[in-house]
Amino acid sequence: MNPLSPAPIPHEEADVIVIGAGSSGCVLANRLSADPGRRVLVLEAGGRDDWIWFHIPVGYLFAIGNPRADWMFRTEAIPGLGGRALNYPRGKVIGGCSAINAMIYMRGQSTDYDRWRQMGLEGWGWDDVLPLFLAQEDHVSPPSERHRSGGEWRVEYPRMRWAILDAFARAAEAAGIPPVPDFNGGDNFGAGYFQVNQRAGRRWSAARGFLAPALRRPNLKLVTGVIVRRILVEEGRAVGVEYETPVGVKVARASAEVVLAAGAVGTPKLLELSGIGDGDRLSALGIDVVRHAPGVGENLQDHLQIRPIYAVSGVPTLNALYAQVWRRPLMALEYAALRRGPLTMAPSQMGAFARSSDVYETPNLQFHVQPLSLEAFGEALHPYPAITISVCNLRPTSRGSIHAASPDHAAPPTIQPNYLSTPEDEGVAVDALRLVRRIVAQAPLQKFRPKELKPGENVVSDEAILESARRLATTIFHPVGTAKMGLASDPGAVVDARLRVFGVERLRIADASVMPTITSGNTNSPTMMIAEKAARMMREEARA
Hints:
Mean pLDDT: 95
Largest sheet: 8 strands, antiparallel
Strand content: 15-25%
Structural class: alpha/beta
Helix content: 25-40%
Number of strands: 25
Distance between the termini: 36 Å
């Protein structure tokens, strides 16, 4: 410990310490505390979800980019985006990103998980993980092979439709992308409305579904507003954590395990501050090396969305409705009385999955279609009627990194996504924008006289389209992979197939950072599935 650090106040003890009460941490808290004989301590750096915009679905417009709800991270300048730096939103509240995200319920493709199994990661194939998704689910539809009811993770259909989105679905069909009622059967090819994590028009975060019911248990303790400074490792074994509180530094000891659930941004930073990471990097920061693990912070993958914007005529969009100030009280009344209307909207309600070219066997593009437009989330809607047809590469080959920038635990990490750094990703970006244009050119959308504002109808050549993609693209908030799961023979692997950190006993990671490759869709529910599996493995090992 730094000799200038304040002396720790007396420590507390638990059997399991969970670092982070985000999406995965809430699942862990619920599942691990179900054993009344196990004391579980959950430490969260953010606050309670006691702000109205954490619960009204359209609140993402006010939460993202707001320091009350968002950690306000920024990337480094990204060469593939013309040197631009991006905002990198992460939830700063119990429930984590599930309290501010798009609420889209998406498992990904069966081949995503089968690919993990083919890497030698036993127990991670589609047939292995589907029961974990089902165990969590409380789906509004009648139970079937695809869906279950009675779980904690509520899934419903959007409570509002838009004529412009219906027209997009018909245009997609005319372009060869068929309608599909459900993206969660393992093959998500097609177009349709997303399913969302809401209950009766209110956001259903991981904190509401998993954490809140469990907090009634006497063996579960949640502490918010505290920042973990480091994991304590003694003789190669994680024994607790040191964390900062408003009244001083405190130590918590774990008799069984420490579980990291700080996310793809927070987890690698905390590992490095604890001396677990690349030895040369740690030494350069003045951090004592506990375990040389060169894969920590590497392998960052994210879905980069390109956001073409089209002005439209003769059809309602949220831009036009919100611009009419007199309508806003009516929207609020509709929501208060019926839990319907624009305030129930997820950022994207209509989706589509397609292939950018015949090279790909399964869809490698995801569309998030929005009846609105703005420069960036957290900024105002445009004052004219428009739609955004966002499209992202589901399986990028570009790899980035996230690392501690300083031994100071309060310093933000260095985030370098390295978007569009491979020829394959560049080619997919061009093909994706051409596919958007092919869909828009179909008759169902042409009746609304769409005018391409971004990138612009004058952008024609592959080179010009790629340059436009570099200017328009931004994160869709799906970082994964920075403490990847792999075999012991893989020098870049940080955890094994049971999510145990190589070389440090009693330390496990259960969040999006362990994904070896990114899933083909929104990553929130797959992250929660990982936490479900981690909890089951911990129970199995405790019984052994």
